[in-house]
Amino acid sequence: MGYQVYEDPDHPSRWAGYAVPAECDWVDCRAAIHRGLNNKCEDHGDYVLMLDGQQIGYDRFDDEPDAEEVWVEQAGCGLYFCEPHRSRTGEHGSVQPKPDSLEWEAHLLTDASWAPWREEHPDLVNAMRARAPQIAEASR
């Protein structure tokens, strides 16, 4: 199996793969990326601040002299980020996935190789056309 294009198992109704153009999922970031595995937040290690066996926020670091930094393995969030935001794993928890790009939806709606998919998924195609009327006209 290749990873050029596939339906994202972590986020239904979203496409992933190195051939899928997208924006970084970070709030207010408009960096153009692709949804390939090298941009995905996957399992990783990270330092966390612990006090009495409980993880606490770094905003309490100065107030808790007994707190210590500990390396722990963390599950990735499964979202896609540009290089500067991918490394900010401790802040990914509040980030929501962005929808597929209009560029990608235009490809799905107009490229001949996707004609069988369009025939099999008329409801999704109509929803895409409703989101982007200018693409709808080009794809009829």
Number of helices: 5
Largest sheet: 3 strands, antiparallel
The separation of the N and C termini measures 31 Å
Q: Kindly state the number of beta strands.
A: 6
User: What is the topology, as strand order, of the major beta sheet?
Assistant: 1-2-3
- Which H/E pattern describes the elements? EEEEEEHHHHH
Determine the structural class based on helices, strands and strand pairing.
alpha+beta
Poorly predicted runs are none
Question: Roughly what fraction of the amino acids lie in strands?
Answer: 15-25%
Average pLDDT rating = 87
User: Percent range for helical residues?
Assistant: 25-40%
| Radius of gyration, in angstroms, nearest whole number | 20 Å
The coarse overall form would be: elongated
Keywords:
140 residues; alpha+beta; three-stranded antiparallel β-sheet
Provide an overview of this structure:
The chain is α+β, with helices and mostly antiparallel strands and 140 residues long. It is built from 5 helices and 6 strands. Strands 1-2-3 form a 3-stranded antiparallel beta sheet, with no helix packed on it. Strands 5-4-6 form a 3-stranded antiparallel beta sheet, with no helix packed on it. Helix 2 packs parallel to helix 5. The model has no long low-confidence stretch (mean pLDDT 87).
Detail the topology: elements first, then pairings.
Blueprint: E1 6-7, E2 15-23, E3 32-35, E4 44-51, E5 54-56, E6 68-74, H1 83-86, H2 102-110, H3 115-120, H4 122-131, H5 133-139
Antiparallel strand pairs: 1-2, 2-3, 4-5, 4-6
